[in-house]
Amino acid sequence: MRSGKHIARQIFHQTLETLDISAAMQRKLTLNGQSFVLGDGQVLLPLSKEVIVVAIGKAAHAMAVGLRTLLPESIKFRGVVAAPAPTSTPIAGLQYFVAGHPDPNSGSWQAAEEVISLLREAQEGSVVFFLLSGGGSALMELPLIPGMALADLQAVNHALVTCGAPIDAMNIVRRHLSAVKGGRLAAAAASATKITLAVTDVPAGKEHALASGPTVPDPSTIEDAHRILDEYRLREKFPSIVNRWLDEGKMPETPKPGDPAFRNAHFQLLLGMHDLFHAAHHSAESHGYFTCCDNSTDEWPVAKAADTLLQKLEEWQKENPGERVALIADGELSSPVTGNGVGGRNSAFVLACVEKIAGRKITVLSGGTDGVDGNSPAAGAVADGQTLEHANRLGFSPAEFFRGSDAYSFFSKFGDAVLTGPTGNNLRDLRILLADP
Fold first, then answer.
1. Same-domain status, 221 and 292
2. N or C: which end of the chain has fewer CB within 10 A?
């Protein structure tokens, strides 16, 4: 009989295979004569002209290829692609940058400069496609602060991702320090028609969370940004050039709802939380598990999320006595870096579950749909009720590895790291909890 760990891995891999970006474009977008049909209406396209394409994120290559396949060859592309790896299928007219994630690099900076220059050339009749996916906050970045160097930008980013703040709070600060986030790319092409196509599992109404919202209004304020800076003592970790700029009160407000920049702006979700849940739910049930989905723990600390999801799994098991049950959860968790180890929030979540599921017929897997978990080579990890026994036999303490932010090292010793390589997609994280009677 296959183990729970084997089945959880199968569910994870089958889910990834189902989330095809080109197929989603063909399914959800329509070209009808000179009209590009979106969920919020039709957008007239100048078929004899070119369009500007700005692709940012871990799924940037797949999204650019999907759009090129969808549009007729008579429409020429001009634009920029910023992704964490080079492409094997370059598209004529697009300039490619190998950008940094989780820390921005020179490619992130150069891509942002090129995009702003390109957008400022856009006229009233221009059409701009923004293709956005996860990771965009680092993969394209340019500071508002004059004289700031790349090392300063990287220091700010490192301070944010290690401070323990929820992702939404980090993005509020990012949007107020950036020349490309918080609606500022839309403002750079204010008179053009702007079509944003997105791959993300952020909830409806929180589109500003994807890549820190470069093309949508920002609901947060300067006051919100300063509150977060104080709450997480971020200024203690920021370079002096940033703190001087903040002290001088030079932080400008981001574009808000009603700004003219968004008059001709459209947003269409290609793949989101529903698609992720549907694929994982279908796969789990195909393996014989009564399955429910839950996204209530998005942005929670990993330990709190572990307690809550395991409790919900137990309750689901009581509602279905004698049955194999599964709980599917999504979203990103908060996992402050407290050591110099190797790992990320997914393997940290599984590690937080190891002692709680010891001796029980429970399996837990958590993995990034982009195939990357923090600074590790894995997407995440998997554990079951025997993992703690194996660790004790080798003298390994889960708590010690957790404190050292070294979850990948722990699971790699048992062959329980989940390795996929970069997937070219990103619907954030997927957690699979299985319980057998």
1. no
2. N
